[in-house]
Amino acid sequence: MNLSELKKRRRQLMASMGEGGIAILPAAQEHIRNRDVYHDYRQDSDFLYLTGFEEPESVAVLVPGRPQGEYILFCRERNPEKETWDGLRAGQEGAVERYGADDAFPITDIDDILPGLMENRERVYYTMGRNPAFDKHMMDWLNRVRSSARKGVRAPGEFIDLDHQLHEYRLFKSRSEVSAMRRAAKVSAAAHKRAMAACQPGMNEFEIEAELLYEFRRNGMTTAYPSIVGGGRNGCILHYIDNRDALRDGDLLLIDAGAENQGYASDITRTFPVNGEFSPAQREVYEIVLEAQLAAIEKTLAGNHWDDPHQAALRVLVRGLIDLGLLKGSVQSVLESGEYRRFYMHRTGHWLGMDVHDVGDYKVDEDWRLLEAGMVTTVEPGLYITAADDIPERFHNIGIRIEDDVLVTKEGYDVLSKDAPKDIDTIESLVGSGV
Ligand code: GLY
Ligand code: MN
Ligand code: MN
To answer: Which of 208, 265, 325, 424 has its CA 20 to 30 A from that of 74?
Structure first.
């Protein structure tokens, strides 16, 4: 993200905090995978949103109205030996020159400096409970300020959760955020097309996962979440990520995979027949899910309630389940009884942004909030019919989800992931055509 946008975000937050406030945000912690190997490092999204800084062991502090500078970054010092092993560091000079910090200090000096920054501030904006070790430091620093009371120093008396305000900003995507998300969705759509083209009966799920990864990595992107590549019965397991079964002729393959680009996620699901041809039963169920998805997208409009797309999808799915003979009764009675949950047990969408299940409230007071231009949501209805004695065999193990990323605009909506095919004819002609 460019420096001026990062600065604008900090200014916006500081304006809402007012002069008596101080905001403190730690970077994400590193996590050991095994022995001396670490999990891939991913910066905390709130921290990244305000700083663009991707190094661990950093703390950002915003002190509105501080004459010597309002944005302070604590980070690792340069260290030629460590940098030889683990890569370059920005250091304090880089933090100021390349990341726009007004002031930067070594992270090892934070105990000496941070209590001083808290002195005479009334309110601390900090998200408690995410990082217990850091919570403890916060208490220690606060107690240090309190113990200086005799010198006439006032300690902050109010702690305010930073999440709420910050997450409200994050919910509305700027032009550059939308373009990062559009690019992530484009690459993900290409990955889904590649997976369709590569697919042949007898392959393994992990071979298809490799095709997805190939497309992400050759575009310099990573996965936004672990890819779900589930054939047949596995397509009915919502968070199936083992991806290690053979793909069988006659089964469907459900792929839920999205790339992350510059910290912004995409989240796309497509379902297609392993052998390139839907069976009549698979086709019937697929057409219902697709109709539900299109109905939900049509409701993804500014001024509608957050829940409207879900309700639209639900009605089509329930109608379809009744028509297929899998449920009995009227649409209304099935909606009221909740029996549809056997086949559709999740909601139709979630906010999408820096986090795949992005931040932002879904309700205001007790009511669903209204959709507004600049919000991005997924639209992802599905039907999952696992084998059971009371289900006709032709429907056994049909798991279908169709998921797109939809930007609410002033004029309507914009499907960021539209390059991923979802109509039956295009899918059938693409599957197995070769990469
Ligand atoms: N990929 C996670 C989800 O669809 O919500
Ligand atoms: Mn999703
Ligand atoms: Mn998904």
So the answer is: 265
CATH number at residue 347: 3.90.230.10
Cα–Cα dist 401/396, whole Å: 15
Residue 213's contacts (CB-CB under 8 Å, 6 or more residues apart) are 223, 227
Domain end, chosen from 118, 151, 169, is at 169
* Residue 204 and residue 158 share a domain: no
The CATH number of the domain holding residue 110 is 3.40.350.10
Q: Are residues 285 and 242 in the same domain?
A: yes
Give the CA dihedral 86, 52, 363, 265, nearest 10 degrees: -60
Centre of ligand 2 from the C-alpha of residue 144, in Å? 45
Q: Which of 11, 137, 350, 369 is catalytic?
A: 350
Tens digits of per-residue pLDDT, 207-261?
999 999 999 999 999 999 999 999 999 999 999 999 999 999 999 999 999 999 9
Q: Are strands 259-261 and 222-223 parallel, antiparallel or unpaired?
A: antiparallel
Domain count for the chain, please give it. Answer: 2
Catalytic-role residue among 211, 256, 260, 428: 256
Give, for 337, the enclosing helix (H) or strand (E). helix 331-337
CA gap 379, 408 in Å, rounded: 12
Tokens of 353: 């942004």
The boundaries of the domain holding residue 136 are 3-169
CA 244 to chain centre: 25
- The answer to the question of residue 236 being in a domain is yes
Q: Are 155 and 190 in a shared domain?
A: no
The reply to whether 164 belongs to the active site is no
Atom 4 of ligand 1, nearest CA residue: 267
**SS3 category, 239:** coil
Same domain, 117 and 243: no
Residue of 132, 130, 191, 139 lying closest to 166 (CA atoms) = 130
Does 155 lie in the same domain as 240? no
Distance separating alpha carbons of residues 315 and 17, to the nearest angstrom: 44
The answer on 326 and 255 residing in a single domain is yes
E strand spans, 133-289? 158-160, 222-223, 228-231, 252-257, 259-261, 264-265, 268-273
Whether the model pTM is above 0.70: yes
